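Hi Y.,

Following your request, here is the sequence exactly as I used it, all 191 residues.
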Amino acid sequence: MDIDSKRKKQEKKGKKEGRLRWTIQVFFISVVLSAMLTLASEGALDGAGLPVAFGVLVCFIGLGIVFDIIGVAVTAADERPFHSMAAHKTPGAREALGLIRRANKVSSFCNDVVGDICGIISGSTGAIIVTRLQEAFSIRSVAISLAVTALISGLTIGGKALGKTFAINKSTTVLQLVGRVLHLFSGHKKR
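Below is the corresponding structure, written out as tokens. Let me know if you'd prefer a different format.
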């Protein structure tokens, strides 16, 4: 076996280990994030009325859409404008570049982890809303369940469809904003 084939074999093994490590990390991140968001949802819904339940539902659908926009924008973005911004020390440019360079992981986290968790919590919130509506109107009707499920599906799918178009067309703007938010939380001082 020559040196070149050994190197290729080691690179392949390293990539495989990296994918396994990422899969394990994503599993644990998903479990912790899901638990935290479910606790937040349960806390907000505990003893709350229908308006609060609908508010929680809209928040989780909105959160899923926002993270879907970020996940799509990071895969559609071009690094070049951010290199220029980073050279001019624009706050958030370096953070945006970091996101673009890790687009596969950022997209997976935003679209799959956060998006799926928000979808699951939206569904369970919808079930709570259906139960409360049935109690409020003293009716056991499939129509209420169908209406709430259709509303959740329509808002989620329609919102994500609009968001994807926006994310593709305005990926630089989206990542500038996300980069600035990350910059604020990273503790960097203004230069």
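The longest helix spans residues 3-45.

Thanks again,
Q.
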